Amino acid sequence: MSSGSNSGGLMSSAGLVRYFDSDDRDAITINPKTVLAFCVLFGVFVQILSLTAA
């Protein structure tokens, strides 16, 4: 290995950068506030279940 132990790292990640930068019009878009509200409500639900199960 004359080129070092980190050879090809930039080339192998180039495809991932292209993949994640592409904008797909068919993708499902969810508002981040909706995800946050769902997580909070789910956490409250779990806490209520843990209080009733004890």
From TrEMBL:
Keyword entries, A-Z: Cell membrane, Membrane, Protein transport, Translocation, Transmembrane, Transmembrane helix, Transport
What HAMAP family does the database record attribute to this sequence?
SecG
Q: Which family does it belong to?
A: Belongs to the SEC61-beta family.
Entry's localization field: Cell membrane
Q: Which GO terms describe its cellular component?
A: plasma membrane
Instruction: Name the GO terms of the biological process aspect.
Output: protein transport
Membrane disposition? Single-pass membrane protein
Q: Which residue spans belong to the Cytoplasmic compartment?
A: 1-31
The record, for Pfam families, names:
Sec61_beta
What's the name of the protein?
Preprotein translocase subunit SecG
Q: What is the originating organism of this protein? A: Halorubrum lipolyticum DSM 21995
